[in-house]
Specification:
The protein is built from six helices and no strands. By secondary structure, the chain is mainly alpha-helical.
Length: about 130
């Protein structure tokens, strides 16, 4: 698995993780929670640009997840990006469930030891 696919998988695992784990993964600033969505979007776009082959089921789940994240984005939805909301709001439960479904559809583990994005080795470490 190449670096981009590893980062994509990690972004799904972060979105699938329990709220307390998610909050440990994000930067320690006010809107740090949005990094979960930004990272997923970034690597999902990379996968689409590379024309990664997803099954119909995989693509459907990934698009549903992307749509759900879009629905809670934007300045009018700032409340969704607060720590308490990540822990308690049904939208975040939906996101976690969609991410778990995506991992299952991809045949990837739901959890592994997750690190903050800033702690992940650079691309050269993966031999790409």
């Amino acid at each position: 698995m190449d670096y981009s696919m590893l980062r994509f998988r990690r972004s799904l695992q972060a979105l699938a993780a329990p709220a307390d784990v998610q909050l440990q993964l994000v930067p320690d600033y006010l809107w740090g929670v949005d990094e979960l969505a930004i990272e997923f979007d970034q690597w999902f776009q990379v996968m689409k640009r590379r024309r990664t082959i997803f099954s119909k089921k995989q693509r459907s789940i990934l698009e549903d997840l992307n749509k759900k994240l879009d629905e809670i984005s934007g300045p009018e939805n700032l409340r969704y990006w607060m720590e308490d909301t990540v822990r308690t709001d049904i939208a975040w439960e939906d996101i976690r469930n969609l991410a778990r479904n995506a991992l299952d559809a991809m045949g990837w583990p739901r959890q592994e030891t997750l690190k903050k994005s800033s702690e992940i080795p650079v691309k050269a470490s993966y031999g790409e």
